Structure to design on (396 residues):
C-alpha cells in the first residue's frame, strides 16, 4: 500500500512532525507485522526520525546543519539553493520504521519529521506499508 | 519476522559490532532472497555499515563526528545531549542490507554497527527480515 | 528480485548517475506497486538521490563533503582513505525508492547516484525490487 501525505511549508526552513499522519496510514492498512517507508521525492527536502518531545532538539539539528552547510558559500549551482540540496543528501530522503501488532515501533521519544530546506513549498510524501 | 537484539553500551560514546547477531537472525529465518532492516528506536543512537576489519576506521568516524558536532556548542536543548541527537539524525537510525541465498550481502570488509552517542545505556534494536 | 549493476569509476572521487540502469531493472521486474532498494556493498562508496538536471549540484555536494571531511586530517586508519569511509557513513550505503504502476517514484528532478570516494575502482551495486 502506498499513500500520499501533502504538506505546506510556511518558512524557508521548516520541519513538520508527520508522525500522526503516518500512524493513521499504518492503522488503516491493518498490517500486523511489517515495515513503513516514508519517502519525500523532492531534492531540497529530507525525512528523519528523532526526538519529538522537546522542539529544541529539532532547532539544534537545523542550526547545526546551517553551521556545517551555510546558505551562501560560493556554490557552483546558480539557482542559489545548493545548501538545501546538500542538507537533503546528508540527512537522506527516506526513513524506514518497523511495524509490530499494527503499531509503528518508534521509540518513546521518537517522531517522524519532514524537513524542507528551501521553502515555502507544497510538498508530497509517499508512505509505503508492507507486510513481512 | 522481527527480532530484538539487546545491547549494553559501556561508555559515553560506544560503537558495537552487531554483525554476528544480525547474521544469526537472518540464518534462523531461512529466507533465501530478501532484505534485512536493522533499526534502533532511540534518539541518541544510530546504525551504520562500514569497515569492520580495522577498528581505527570507526575511531576516525567518531572523531570526525565529534569535530563537526561538538558536545558543547550553546545548544538550545537543555538536557545537555543535543550533539547525540544531531549525530543520530545525520548518520540515521537504520540500515537495510540485501539477502541472497540466506546470506547477508555485506561486502568483504563490511560490518553492521550500532552507535550510541549518549551512553552508557541499555538499548534494543529491531531486526526485520523479509522475503522478496 | 535482486540484480547487480557493475560500474567503473575513473577518478579518485566519482559520482555516477545510475538512474537509467535502476529503471531498467524495475521495468524488467514487471512489479506494479513496490519498493526498490539500491545498495552498494563497499565501504568507501555511497548511494544518494538528488538533483540530476544540473551537474553543479553534485559538484557542490562533493565539495562540501570534502570541506567537512578533508582527505588529510591526522586520521588513525593507516591506509590513507579514512575520509572516504567517513563520507560513506554520513551519506549512507543505500537508498529506497517507492514504485507505483511499475515506475520509480522519483521526483521530477531526482536521479539516483553512486558515489565512490576512493577510486578508481570497479564496483558492484545490488538492486532489490519487491512487491508490496
Amino acid at each position: 500500500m502506498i499513500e500520499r501525505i501533502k504538506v505546506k511549508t510556511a518558512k524557508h526552513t521548516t520541519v513538520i512532525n508527520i508522525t500522526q499522519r503516518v500512524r493513521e496510514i499504518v492503522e488503516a492498512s491493518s498490517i500486523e507485522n511489517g515495515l513503513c517507508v516514508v519517502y519525500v521525492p523532492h531534492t531540497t527536502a529530507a525525512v528523519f526520525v528523532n526526538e519529538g518531545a522537546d522542539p529544541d532538539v529539532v532547532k539544534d539539528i537545523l542550526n547545526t546543519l546551517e553551521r556545517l552547510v551555510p546558505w551562501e558559500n560560493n556554490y557552483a549551482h546558480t539557482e542559489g539553493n545548493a545548501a538545501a540540496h546538500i542538507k537533503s543528501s546528508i540527512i537522506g530522503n527516506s526513513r524506514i520504521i518497523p511495524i509490530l501488532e499494527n503499531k509503528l515501533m518508534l521509540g518513546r521519544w521518537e517522531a517522524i519529521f519532514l524537513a524542507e530546506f528551501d521553502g515555502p513549498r507544497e510538498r508530497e510524501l509517499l508512505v509505503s506499508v508492507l507486510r513481512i
Q: What stands out?
A: Chain C is about 25% helix and 40% strand. The mean pLDDT of chain C is 97. The CA atoms of residues 36 and 129 of chain C lie 5 Å apart. Residues 2-131 of chain C form a domain with the Jelly Rolls fold (CATH 2.60.120.460).
